[in-house]
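Table S2 (text version). Query chain:
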Amino acid sequence: MAAVRVEAVLAAAEEQEAEKRRSITVEKELELEYDLGNLLAVDRNPPPAAALRGAGPRREALLRALARDNTQLLVSQLWGLPAERAGGAGGPLVAQLPEPTFGLPREKPPPKPRPPTRWEQFARLKGIRRKKKTSLVWDEQAKEWRRRWGYRRAGGDPSRAWLAEVPAGADPEEDQFARLRREKRERVARNELNRLRNLARAHRAGTAVPAAPLHPTGHQDRDELRRVARVARVSTASLGRFQPRLPKEPAEPPSRSGGKKRRFEPLLGNLAAERSRQLELLRDMGSKKPVLDITRAVNKQMRQEEAEAAAANKGKKQSKRGKRGRRQQRPGRSGKKSGARRQAQKQKPAGGGTGGGRRKKA
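Corresponding structure-token output:
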């Protein structure tokens, strides 16, 4: 009995040792293809087709074992990479991943190139190359380095100088300071016009146009404040999903465009609700009586009655206007006198006439 027990203990110990070795050692007919930069392992070995048929516990156990073996191979490759301690001797062990070799597809399409401006097209046609200029230049008057453009630039603003040179051939009586200010306004207006033209050309080309900036004003209404808050919310990496909400703000995070997000029914969900909707649709299609929308029918009837009443009132007004015009213009009583009657009045004596004239009492 003692010998039997010793043999059983040794056999159990050997099985445990083999199980431990099997947990870290995986044998494959074909070596896996690794992309450690993306933590990717590709297994080209065909799985057993007989074991994958059906949907029983045997298939699930086989898939779990296959996933476990491939993960073990990938982790073994990661342990072979050079590693270092992050944050000192007591920090975690971090492996240095190589550069990825497998090209992953993009989540979104690549951005479209910006259309060239008129100056860029002209420079490309003429072969003009852009030269890099330094932002600071030496100012001889101030004896210091100043900006080339903008506020406190080198040389100062010619329109604000205390002395202005009269160019040759100009009118000596002309105000040169007013001329410089006028030319500056014209340059600013020309640049703004060119900027608007570029934006319109980019809009016609179908590219994205930058939105109008949000300038703070003294009196902001509710809509503007809501728009500013929405833009601030979606400016984060998570599009405002993890930002604290304001009082009386909807729970759904706002979108970048500010419109309502379309909602679609899930593909796998409540099958009873989907079945009821489909049956109701088939019942409406197969019924002889059409579906009556009471609200829409009442609104249509009200609009029809209002249109009929308006047409009747318009006809009454036109008939009254026609009667009044016929009553005023009767035959034989027109305001214009005929030529024969005017000629007869001219031939009457000045002292009075006979016949139809009025007689004076004696």
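Notes on Table S2: Residues 350-362 have pLDDT under 50 and may be disordered. DSSP finds nine helices and six strands in the chain.
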